[in-house]
Amino acid sequence: MDEEAKAGSKSDTNTNAAAEAEAAAAAAAPPPPPSSSEAAETEAKVEEPEEEGEVVERLVELVGEIAAISDFRNSYRRQFCNLSRRIRLLVPMLEEAKEAPTPLPVASEAALRRLKEALDGARELLRLGSSGSKIFLVLEREKIMKTFQDITERLEQALAGISFDDLNISDEVREQVELVHAQFKRAKERSDSPEDDLFNDLMSIYNSSSSSDVDPDILRRLSEKLQLVTIYDLNQESLALHEMASGGDPGAVVERMTMLLKKIKDFMQTQDPDMGAQASTTDIPSKDNSTSPVIPDDFRCPISLDLMKDPVIVSTGQTYERGCIERWLEAGHDTCPKTQQKLPNKSLTPNFVLRSLITQWCEANGIEPPKRPAQHSKAPGPCTAAEHSNVVELLQKLSSQNLEDQRGAAGMLRQLAKRSAENRACIGDAGAIPILVSLLSTTDVSTQEHVVTALLNLSIYEENKARIITSGAVPGIVHVLKRGSMEARENSAATLFSLSIVDENKVTIGASGAIPALVQLLSNGSQRGKKDAATALFNLCIYQGNKGKAVRAGLVPILLELLTESESGMVDEALAILAILSGHPEGKAAISAASAIPVLVGVIRNGSARNKENAAAVMVHLCNGEHQQQHLAEAQEQGIVSLLEELAESGTDRGKRKAIQLLERMNRFLKQQSQAQAEAMAQAQAQAQVVQAQAQADMPVERSLLPTSSHIPD
Prior knowledge:
It comes from Digitaria exilis. By secondary structure, the chain is mainly alpha-helical. It has a three-stranded antiparallel beta sheet with strand order 2-1-3. Among the domains are: 53-189, no CATH class; 196-272, no CATH class; 297-365, Zinc/RING finger domain, C3HC4 (zinc finger) (Herpes Virus-1); 595-687. The protein has helices at residues 3-9, 17-28, 36-47, 52-67, 77-88, 91-97, 106-131, 134-139, 141-160, 171-188, 196-206, 216-225, 231-246, 251-271, 322-330, 352-364, 385-398, 403-419, 421-429, 432-438, 445-459, 462-470, 473-483, 486-500, 503-510, 514-524, 527-540, 544-552, 555-564, 571-581, 585-593, 597-606, 609-622, 628-637, 640-650, 653-704; strands at 311-313, 319-321, 349-350. The longest helix has 52 residues, at 653-704. The protein is 68% helix and 1% strand. It is flat, with a radius of gyration of 35 Å. Helix 27 (527-540) packs parallel to helix 30 (571-581).
């Protein structure tokens, strides 16, 4: 099928979704190998050194870039300002060096190159001081000061090697540079560390296990000294931490720094409940401002740390606030901010489940549910007269009785719909969708494949979704899903997924008989077909009314079979669907009847962090209610207790909560089991004592029957 279209169908439903997906696919594709001449040219560029004049020009540019860096609002402010000021004083020397005779002596040329390398390092350090994480700068003070010392020493050595005579430097400028050189020399011999109190306060929170262990006075001091007072300050710090993680800093360290920032942010919001009103993207309108409930971590955007209004899922499975992740991607990043995995594409899928949970939490806590920001996507421009004429001509062929014309026109519309949002709008406006829908039942395999794929590509455009539904396309798409070729079935499943992004369409599709056909494709389809079926089923099962239909279609045994086939590559999808179904009575009963406990325990033992989380979520539902004792006993036999203890320590936030819930239930079960054993043992002992007492009571009678010694003959 059209990979660009399929990727786009899983992204946001705005009009630019397909274009973004096509760009992502193009970015993911390996570039063609360079020709021998291109390779030789690249190699020459790498090896060719800069000319002397170019070195001086680059030095002037570097100093200009350094001069533009400002706003050093952190504990190293004095050191950063001094370094920047001293470097700026070198400008007159570099301007005069432009007029120096060439070629320069080897020693002077080498000194200029050393100066350039030192200035490169100084620029990066000053950028860190201006826009880097304030928390990182304090916690890593030894590393920062070592870098300061290293750069200062390199600058001093480079200036010491410059010959003023070789560069024709005037006496006045020479005196100024000598003064700067002397300052670098003195700075090299001393080390100014930031205040210890700030470092100690940060370390005390950094090493604390929970927010309740933190002294509020420490949090207040930190917010003031680090100048993390406003929502803007806190959000900028959060972005700086994620930028660091993107640059390759250890993820665990950055994650702990983010948790530290979260503690400061929570404290600031408790001090000022209306703090969020300072920024429209972060406010939490409360019906009762007297209390500010703590936002669950899963409801916060990992970038901004604020309650999410429009959560979306990226291709790594992580969820972010749409606006935050869009800005991250627009800044040129191609990694997931939280996991640092490279994003295979930049598609964004709305997280309807999480949005619903956030709404429920807000209502339960007396908070007005966040309103999803209006999508101001750029509407595709109108098509030209020539383009419109071309589409009309294709529609005429599509409506003809000639099979070749139909097949060719359907193929052309498929390609046009794949290329751009403008084409999708133009084709939809021209009335193509009802004609395409009428051809879904064609017996020509190629025409059917073209038609259903054209509808898939057209469905990416928001207005076309409604047109496809109102034209009665769903029964025809389900017909292709059941009886079409494998490619047609794959694209039918992908089309249903794209249409189901609209909540109302989940009901329509579920009532059309699509779910059993999707389950069948998940069972016997190609690898890509299984993926398409799984994503469509996941989306459809978000609607409560579709869960029972999926269970009755035999979905649960197929999902468990996929869990046991690691080579299938479907473990993530299968567990995600099971986690949704386990909250439904029929789903829970089906999972229980399928003897899923050993499989789920195996995932908790060997699965990825996300899969462990989902497996634990399913176990929480199973170990509750009618068969709780049976499932807990079986899980205990499988050795789940130690696995849950490990998950509670090192799992995801949701995984930790599920593990703790299961451990609490397991502990109650073991306690009840121990009490039952103790009662049984006590009862057995009591019965034994009764028997023993009865035996002792019968002993004299037995003795009286024995002959006495006088009756025994000699």
